[in-house]
Automatic annotation (TrEMBL), chain A:
Main location group: membrane
Name of the protein described by the UniProt record: Ribose transport system permease protein RbsC
Compartments reported by the entry: Cell membrane
Statement: the UniProt record of this protein carries the keyword Lipid biosynthesis: no
Upper classification of the organism: Bacteria, Pseudomonadati, Pseudomonadota, Alphaproteobacteria, Rhodobacterales
Protein's membrane topology: Multi-pass membrane protein
UniProt-listed InterPro entries: ABC_transp_permease (IPR001851)
Gene: rbsC_3
One Gene Ontology molecular-function label: transmembrane transporter activity
Top-rank taxon, per record: Bacteria
Transmembrane segments: 12-32, 44-63, 70-90, 96-117, 124-142, 162-183, 214-237, 243-262, 269-288, 294-312
Automatic annotation (TrEMBL), chain B:
Membrane topology field: Peripheral membrane protein
Pfam families in alphabetical order: ABC_tran
Catalytic activity, EC: 3.6.3.17
ABC transporter domain ranges (all copies): 6-241, 254-499
Gene that specifies this protein: rbsA_2
Protein name (record): Ribose import ATP-binding protein RbsA
Amino acid sequence: MKNDNLMKRFLAAEWSSLLILSLVMMAAMTIITPRFLNFDNQAILTRSLAPLLIVAFAQAIVIGIGQMNLAVGAIGGMVAVFFGGMMEAWGFPIPVAIAIGFACGVAAGALNGAIIAFSGINGFIVTLATLSIFKGLNLGVTKSIPFYEMPDALVWFGEARFGPFAAILIVPVICVVALAWFLKYNIYGRQILAVGGNAHAAELAGISNNRVTILAHTISGALAGVAGMLSVARLGVGQPTIGGDWLLASFAAPVIGGAILLGGHIPILGTVLGVLVIILIENLLVLYGVDPQYNEFFVGALILAAVGFNHWRSLRAEARLKEGKA
Amino acid sequence: MTDVALKIENATKRFPGVLALDHAALELRPGEVHALLGENGAGKSTLIKIITGVHEPTEGTVWVDGEEVTFKSPHDAMDAGIGAVHQERNLIPRFTVAENIMLEAVPTKRGQVDYAEMRRQAEYWLSELDLDIDPDLPVQRLSVAQMQLLEIARALSLKSRVLLLDEPTASITEHEVQVLFSFLRKLKAQGVAILFVSHKLEEVFEICDRVTVLRDGKNACTNVPISDLNRDGVVAHMVGRDNALSDLGHRAPVDAPTKLELKDVSTRIGHSNVNLHAKKGEVLGFYGLVGAGRSELARALIGADKITGGQVLIDGKEAKISSVQDALRKYQMGYVSEDRKGDGLILAHSVADNIGVTIWHKIAKFGGFVTDTMQRKSVRGFVDRLEVKTPSLQQTLGNLSGGNQQKVSVAKWLAAETEILIIDEPTVGVDIRTKGYLHKLIWEVAEAGVTVLVISSDMPEIVAVADRLIVMNEMQVVGDLPNSRDYDEMSQKIMQSIVGASDLKESA
């Protein structure tokens, strides 16, 4: 009886289908290529998982207020080269570079949020413009030349692993736990969800929509910056192209996880599993020797399938509710 | 042609938990302008949506030209010759006048849009209506009245024999109203049956031949010739009298210092010289027909809109309210919106979160730390006290009934410990039992020392609940009446205030 209930509650959770899907994918991959379980492969998998996890939440927090941040990749790339440059060209110690890089991400996000809040221009447009601005700044200053001479400690951290887990995975774990805590237990986190849920109601309840918009974008920028610096650690190079391919995955993961684009809901576990599924697809293609160029094809198909599934489920829940009431 | 263009009988529409329309009837004759009246929530828009095929009635029959019809979609209604101009504009601003008129019936030649033909047909309809508008002009460059007339032209281009006009004069000037009316008279002469929905009684008496009034989804009067009614009669039908209203008992007159005072207040929306005051612990009722500016005044008071002149005094001191946050945190003022779903509640979030939203900053520890347990502790008392029927505090609010949702929207302001509470339409869309309950609650809250401002279009409600009545009309206070709670006496006084004010305006 009690097990029954647990089972029901598990199936009712929005992330259950994703968890099953990723387990099935992993099982299938293990059966077909035992190489999958190989620690080397696992380390590769978790290493590519790490920055993307942070990127997904950089987007999810803005989706939470019903907006979009198209500039996540551009901020990540800009912070990444700045981070690399500070260490190679100026010889800054790692902690100082991290602190300044983080501040740079915060500033970029705050700028996005402030422009949106005070001008009233749609966030899509504003971040489309700043995407171009940040990216242009990055490429212009670096002339697209990467910074190769990264400190040994950073390179070591990027390559280290504990069993199957890449060491850099610790950063997204901290970020995601902190964010989940913030959204659930902090009044400002709750205000973000309240504004996303119904901006008018939140405003009438004394919550400043402008302040919340700036806050969400600032967090988004900070996370994008952290993801950028983590990518430098992962690659061992301060590459200007970092962040160039984040946009699709940044939306895909929260949406697959069950986020509502209108705002008001940020699925933490769902987004984590969304990233995992995306990475598994990538890994699957590599293990099978399929041209990785097909990657986006599968991610796109997955978005449609996942969103379709969620839609079907909410329609069914609605129908049941009606039946129950009639 | 039969002498009845459109007839509806027994029209009933049930939404989950709400009976929006209850055996309503209506008859439209060719060549008449028929007024459909009623206060907000009376069922007018539901009836219109049934006639235009947006909603299928739960029960009831519709005849067009004596033939029984069933509309599955708006398209069916259009095919049957029913054209409608809705309250919201349905024009595409960047399209030209011709493109907009012919939107539903784009002429084509060999699979391509035939612009020459489109222009020709559009010109025909424009000349038919004596409209001097260039068909190639983008609609966004027209005046509001021109757009309104254009919508009518579009409805007619579908060869409509029945025309529904929902508040066609809401956003146009007096002169433009006259243009519209002369045009309607012409359509009348051509045998078009026109249903005219308006809140402006002067217009109804000017243009309409017969009147149907809805109240609480039922017919208060049906197909009555306008010559049999005067203005008081129509208002009496609209306002009605709710006998089921619970007896609240006795309430002693309030003797306390003034809490809130407005001196010559004017607002951005158009209020001018508003003067009123409310005592601590007093229930001040605001009555007025729709559009009188009551909710707008409330929104300005709580900082959601701009006050442009005069003074607002709270506890005798001038209050500077520049944002909703100011109103709530500095002056403990709260506003329960009339639009629960639109700007009152977050339906996708839990009951606890919806109530907690106003007090997070108060219950938080260590600079912003709130747990569900802390929130539940602060919120539970209010949920119990208001008898909100919910399986748990974590229940998604959207799953509760309308009455319970309304209780939650009141609970969140009680939790905020407001000293001035504005409740806008406290009982719209809630059942009789909850209604009585909410009325008692308003008194309880006032007993506890809160100044309660109740805005309501339900005259029996306002007479039963308020200690004193402010009557508003066209953005002005036209009456400040002590309430004897004798319905017949008060309803007459209220109507005198409203009618007297418009008479005064007319003679001026």
